[in-house]
Amino acid sequence: MLRYFCLLAVVLVGAKSASAPWIKPCQLSDNACVLASANAIVPFMAPGIPEWNMKSLDPMKMDIVKSEQSGLKLTFRNTVVDGMKGCKVDGIKVNKGKQQLLIRCDVTLSGNYTLTGQLLIFPVEGEGPYTLSIRDIVIKVVANIETVDGPDGKPHWSITSWKHNYNIKTSTVFHFSNLFNGNKVLADPVSKFMNDNWREVMDEVAGPIVYAIVSNTVDSVKAFYAAVPSSELHIA
Ligand SMILES: *[C@@H]1O[C@H](CO)[C@@H](O)[C@H](O)[C@H]1NC(C)=O
Description:
Radius of gyration: 20 Å
Bound molecules: 2-acetamido-2-deoxy-beta-D-glucopyranose
Strand content: 35-45%
Shape: elongated
Number of helices: 3
Order of helices and strands: EHEEEEEEHHE
Helix content: 10-25%
Largest sheet: 6 strands, antiparallel
């Protein structure tokens, strides 16, 4: 979610990159320019750019995500994440050694789940299709950056490490079909409880999901930096 590829881009009137016209380099000290440019770049990054080895982020595919915590085992398979192209960059700091991005997104995950164990106060089990709609997840990503020479002989930014945290501001809505093998008497109260207590439930299960989304996005930014020389991403 985390299009902090955005970091790079920016709008100095008239300046543009040789690699793509939608990359508008700014001076890194011009924060308003960097923020505007980052937001402008999100829709170009989201569908992926195969010639630069950038996978699609919207839709984003995740084969398997497992969460195991406090006696609850949750596995998501064949998940599709929709909505990343609508992410807004709320804050950004870019310099040559460290880059920081604050991004806000609404996303919907859908796929198949298996769930077994103890969910807060309820024993639960189920297997089937699911959707999970998250409104206003705000993710902060901080990355350490080095400048390395690319195969093109030019300097490129390279992400050497990163970390993230997140906060869901507005809501999460869960639909787990076929909980308790379709037994509504058991399933309905659990569904209601989960949705009424979405924040506590997400505290239990969301970590690996958010990590997977951020990690895919960082991979995309890494590929972007590998493809485009840093001299085209900012004005010296
Ligand atoms: C979910 O599982 C069902 C039953 O195994 C299968 O028919 C369906 O294609 C799966 N859906 C996804 C998105 O993998």
